[in-house]
């Protein structure tokens, strides 16, 4: 077995979480929609998927959602701001990831919108990663094999030398199909323990 040389994390559901559900509940009530619909449309709905594929901009996504929920399109920025007040980055997990360097290379592999790079810079965590692969930028999406290969290429490691952490089983399976180590994220402590066990093997 080759020793692991790189640790790769997903973003949404691993590094980014809903941490203020009350903010989302209040927003859903004001919009007159169930909370589940709010989350689905933002994270997985047709407009979100188009944004993850790089077919539309994040602004076009929020304009479309505003219109869908009966708001004027010019309220898109305010709608987005309200939504993001309910989520935050797991800084403890970022601190752990930083601690792996320089012994291990670090990567972020995410099905995400075109503004993710700016978000990482704004939250002060962009420098925690040696390489980024963002679906909207590349027009590739997990679990397509090409997006994992691109990540490995940018990190300069073989598949067997990388471990990938994601909260979706199909994305972990996509990495494992290429020979990468995979960890299905359930919570921070569990994911860290499983990655560290692989690193120590």
Structure described in brief:
This protein has 201 residues and is α/β, with parallel strands linked by helices.
Total individual domains: 2
User: Overall 3D geometry?
Assistant: elongated
> What is the CATH class designation of the largest domain?
Alpha Beta
In N-to-C order, the SSE pattern is: EEHHHHHEHEHEHHEHEH
Q: Given the structure, what is the number of helices?
A: 11
Examine the secondary-structure arrangement and name the CATH architecture of the largest domain.
Answer: 3-Layer(aba) Sandwich
Q: How far do the termini sit from each other?
A: 10 Å
Number of strands: 7
Report mean pLDDT, rounded to a whole number.
Answer: 97
Unreliable stretches: none
Percent of residues in beta strands: 5-15%
**What order do the strands of the largest sheet run in, or round the barrel if closed?**
5-4-1-6-7
Largest sheet: 5 strands, parallel
CATH superfamily of the largest domain: HAD superfamily/HAD-like
Fold-level CATH name of the largest domain: Rossmann fold
């Amino acid at each position: 077995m080759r020793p692991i040389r790189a640790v790769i994390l997903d973003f949404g559901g691993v590094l980014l979480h809903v941490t203020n559900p009350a903010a989302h509940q209040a927003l859903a009530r004001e919009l007159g929609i169930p909370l589940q619909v709010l989350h689905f449309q933002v994270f997985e709905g047709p407009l979100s998927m188009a944004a993850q594929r790089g077919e539309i901009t994040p602004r076009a996504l929020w304009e479309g959602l505003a219109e869908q929920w009966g708001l004027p399109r010019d309220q898109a920025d305010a709608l987005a701001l309200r939504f993001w007040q309910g989520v935050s980055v797991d800084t403890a997990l970022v601190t752990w990831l930083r601690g792996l360097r320089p012994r291990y290379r670090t990567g972020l592999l995410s099905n995400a919108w075109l503004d993710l790079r700016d978000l990482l810079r704004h939250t002060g965590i962009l420098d925690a990663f040696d390489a980024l692969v963002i679906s909207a930028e590349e027009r590739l999406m997990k679990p397509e094999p090409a997006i994992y290969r691109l990540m490995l290429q940018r990190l300069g490691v073989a598949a067997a030398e990388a471990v990938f952490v994601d909260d979706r089983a199909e994305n972990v399976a996509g990495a494992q199909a290429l020979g990468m180590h995979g960890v299905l994220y359930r919570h921070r402590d569990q994911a860290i323990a499983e990655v560290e066990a692989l690193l120590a093997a």
